[in-house]
Sequence to fold (441 residues):
Amino acid sequence: MGTFVVENRIWDQAETMPRATLAALQTQRLREVVARTASVPFYRDAYAKCGVSPDSIRTLDDVRRLPFTTKDDLRQHYPLGFLTVPRSEIARIHGSSGTTGKPTFVAYTAQDLKLWADLCARFLVGGGLKSEHLVHIAFGYGLFTGGFGLHYGVERVGAGIVPAAGGNTPRQIMLINDLQADVLVCTPSYALHIAEVSRAEGCDPKNLPLRFGHFGGEPWTEEMRTEMEREFSLKAFNNYGLSEVIGPGVSGECAAREGMHIQEDHFIVECLNPNTLEPVPDGEPGELVFTTLTKQAMPVIRYRTRDIASLNRTVCACGRTTTRMSRVIGRTDDMLIIRGVNVFPSQIEEALLRVEGTAPHYLIEVDRPGTLDEIVVRVEIRPQQFSDKMRELHQLHDQIDRAIHAITGIRMKIELVDPQTIERSMGKAKRVIDHRKEIKP
Ligand code: DLL
Fold:
């Protein structure tokens, strides 16, 4: 049983459906989405190859007969080759925050936008949002799904919104303070940055009026949650999503905060071994794969997220019957392989946050100067820990070295850097620079 930190509230009774009813609904919806997507040449060809038709979908397990969709498939049909409705029905277009090349676009009909707002309302209410709250949204408003997605979710619940968007942190703090916002919505790394700037300006973040935080859009750790809750004196909730599937609203934590509830009446989730593409047992990490069941403009079938997490199908203390996913522990593509060992940046972060005196700002640089991979972790020390005593700095260095070794099993080069020297981001933090990718064989 989870420990409740906020009142347990459920937005939509669909979240508590008996599993058998849910399975029947999912199967019916799966059949419908297979029929709808057959108008997309990519799926039409793929279905012909796999020998599936809507009528051949009889049970939920039949999802495994369907073809996968990857980001690369979307790229190859740039810009809107996966559209299943006439262009005139498009109500909005968003794009994924790709760091290289062109974005991948996702289209929504008016009904998709309504569904999206409802799905965001579900996790927001699960994490304590009430109509009397004022919510400060510091996500970018634009092609990125974070700003608009959360905005309409909050609006659906009936709470007030300060659409601050990203940038100008001192001004964000002024707005939070002057308007007395109760809830902060942004990436976890930006929330920590707000705390830090507030402190630098002589305002203890605890004195900000914030009481709840809904953070998502990038990986974070339990240690970061502890840090954030201590800094701001708020309750922090995790929510997950990706543009290709709908944006934020795919899953989110409830008051029990023991995993993020996947909105399974609208998405089928699978957790697969990324190499064999066979399902992994519950509780074991694998790649999450989502099929959208009800999206109209651009449904995706078995979309490979590259996100690594595990699933938990046990019943939650909150009463929801939906499967929960763990935190995302990494991506198949930011997974670093250092001298043969798989390392996720989140493991390094976990190690750093265990050591008193380090700030949650770090940069991992990987290189291969000769034949061996070399990894350097630059980590900021806290201003209050800043010391010119060599002995203390050595001690800190050794503690970090031991913590990283204990968690990842490998030794990395640690460089302690001055406070405020690692670049801050307004959106998703950049944690890894892999110079090896620049080396062409
Ligand atoms: O980041 C959607 C979103 C916005 C979710 C705001 C939550 C809040 P994309 O830009 O397409 O969409 O990036 C999706 O971000 O595949 C994950 O790797 C990562 N991600 C999103 N939420 C989380 C989270 C949005 N809570 C990619 N924990 C996903 C870990 C997350 N990673």
User: Anything to note?
Assistant: The first strand starts at residue 92 and ends at 95.
